[in-house]
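Hey, I'm writing a tutorial for new members on how sequence and structure tokens pair up, and I'd like a real worked example in the thread rather than a made-up one. If someone can provide the structure for the chain below, I'll link this post from the tutorial.
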Amino acid sequence: MVDTRRQVSGHAVVGLTAIGGQPNPKLRVYLPADLQAAGGDKLPLRVEIDSADGRYYGIGVFSGPVKGTGWRYIQLLPDDKLLTPPKGINPADLAISVHALLDGGRRSQPLLASWSEPELRGATLRLNINSRRASQLQIQGHSGSPRHACTRIDNASTLRFDAVCEIKVSELEPLAKGQHRLRLIRRDGFAIETSSVELWL
């Protein structure tokens, strides 16, 4: 879909991209251990694709076998069929969102996903953000790292998110094995709100 109007999802962080991933028939998804118990090995997944400016949007449901835990590859399309992005858009600008559909689709659980196994050493992460009407929005990794201003997206079709934030993986705050944290800082007048985002890489 192109230039379609969509309602705000309500999520603070809408999309997370390791810049450089290329679309291909296999999608890499992180499956937590409790997901198998909730849905078995044929768990439907809702897959959504967004461009950074909000103009291009796609959605579909995968209903094949989903087995194991941790990072798994899921075959979205036959090997001889390529995922082709819209003309005039860089594939690296497409953000992927995956939700596991539970209880017959009555509720969903967001999952980490990527087009391929990215080279994260020295990589940059791009976050698509709902700024919540903040006058200024910044992103920061560990406490000693610099704050980076996020870029506003001025597009009438962008109802799902309205800003893009980028940060180097090396600036993230390391937690447990594979787990990292960053901070989103929203300023509205004299009020400042800080939100923590934890992710696994």
